[in-house]
Write a structure and sequence with these properties.
The chain is an alpha/beta fold. The protein has helices at residues 3-6, 37-44, 59-72, 83-94, 109-121, 134-143, 164-173, 221-234, 240-250, 253-272, 291-297, 312-322, 352-358, 374-388, and strands at 76-80, 100-104, 125-129, 148-152, 177-181, 197-201, 215-219, 277-281, 304-309, 327-328, 338-340, 364-368. The longest helix is centred in the last third of the chain and has 20 residues, at 253-272. Bound molecules: pyridoxal-5'-phosphate.
Length: 389
């Protein structure tokens, strides 16, 4: 073989079957080959296992999909390149022109934009409610056929806790599917509820280190199979290297989550006793409006703490800029603590009434709590609150 040929066909390295790597390798290959055409055709006919093209499936992705499906307590999982793709893919695959969707003012802004804007252009109708308005939800679902109810719990950023049994109960009774963006609660929680589709941003707690993006759709097999062809044709695929990094992050998922939740409670308790703070929202605080429900539904209280600073928008900006350990940055769930000041949190695309439902005020600050020492985080918050006055 000439050198020019050799470099494109390097020597094979055989790893004996009884000599496995402890860490699964990254299958950083777009293509997988069968030795003959007949086997390739059998693969396409679903008569044999295998892999062909990584836009459809890949062993590294498959390992992560199986892990996440098991943790969430569902049959299967489909990975996507981002959290928003894990929300967009089921919506695009399952909805038809003329279908009706119920969603909430408290949802992540791009989800609202996708439902009202993009899907609206394709003839999908939608109704926005407040996630607190259970009577409104019952009325809406009774008044017209609805294909899908899209919700979050805890909501971002105000951390309202949705009554999952109530929402899924009324949706099931009226023949609507439910999609829960479970990013804030995590891949380990809420599996006991009758949710049809879980969507996750793996960019957050699952990967955990702020260095990779990803998403997951987790559901029963029949629903995922109904999305697969559209997903393959749209191509929201996760790269194998990203899947490998998320698999690595998952090894410390519970250790990080425990530390982040512990730190969050310390931070919430500190803020609740501070004169510069008007209101704290953390479901782990006994007097939080979502505490009782969160204690029933979740195995922890999460790692976001949201509060209202006295003085509003400008004091909030001064506070965020005075922090030394908390970076002013988007996203959440990573090892490092982050802050979003009121000026970066104001909801877009809502009427005055819907803004009131969202409960985001002029002084609302969102903290994403990392794994640092809680004493250092509290000291940093104390000095920044003082500096912001
Ligand atoms: C609740 C929630 N859902 C979805 C997303 C989108 O995830 P990604 O940034 O991975 O697309 C985010 C991102 O902040 C989020 O907070």
């Amino acid at each position: 073989m000439k050198k020019r040929t050799r470099v494109t066909h390097p020597p094979d390295v055989h790893v004996p079957a009884d000599n496995r790597p402890l860490v699964a390798p990254i299958y950083q290959s777009v293509k997988f080959t069968f030795d003959d055409v007949g086997e390739t055709r059998r693969y396409f006919g679903r008569q044999r296992e295998g892999f062909y093209y990584s836009r459809s499936s890949n062993p590294t992705l498959r390992q992560l999909e199986r892990l996440l499906a098991e943790l969430q307590g569902r049959e299967d999982c489909l990975l996507t390149a981002s959290g928003v793709a894990a929300i967009a893919t089921p919506l695009l695959a399952l909805l038809r022109s003329g279908d009706h969707v119920v969603y909430f003012a408290e949802l992540y802004q791009p989800t609202r934009a996708l439902i009202a804007g993009m899907l609206g252009r394709f003839g999908v109708t939608s109704t926005m409610l407040s996630v607190d308005d259970y009577a409104g939800l019952e009325r809406e679902l009774a008044s017209r056929p609805t294909r899908l109810v899209v919700f979050e719990s805890p909501s971002n950023p105000v951390l309202k806790i949705a009554d999952i049994a109530r929402i899924t109960g009324v949706a099931r009774a009226r023949g609507a599917l439910t999609l829960l963006d479970n990013t804030l609660a995590g891949v380990h929680d809420h599996g006991q509820y009758d949710v049809d589709i879980f969507a996750h941003s793996l960019t957050k707690f699952a990967s955990g280190h702020g260095d990779v993006m990803g998403g997951a759709i987790i559901a029963r097999r029949e629903l995922l199979d109904a999305m697969r062809e559209d997903a393959e044709n749209i191509g929201p695929t996760l790269d194998p290297h990203a899947a490998y990094l998320i698999l690595r992050g998952m090894k410390t998922y519970f250790v990080r989550r425990d530390a982040q939740c512990r730190n969050s409670l310390r931070v919430a308790e500190f803020l609740a006793g501070h004169p510069q703070v008007e209101r704290v929202r953390y479901p782990g605080l006994a007097r939080d409006p979502g505490h009782v429900l969160a204690a029933q539904q979740m195995s922890d209280f999460g790692a976001l703490v949201t509060f209202d600073i006295r003085g509003g928008l400008e004091t909030g900006s001064r506070f965020a800029e005075a922090l030394q350990l908390f970076a002013i940055a988007a996203s959440l769930g990573s090892t490092e603590s982050l802050v979003l000041p009121p000026a970066l949190l104001q909801p877009r695309g809502l009427t005055a009434e819907q803004r009131a439902w969202s409960d985001i005020g002029p002084g609302t600050v969102r903290l994403s709590i990392g794994v640092e020492d809680a004493d250092d985080l509290v000291e940093d918050l104390r000095q920044a609150l003082f500096a912001a006055q």
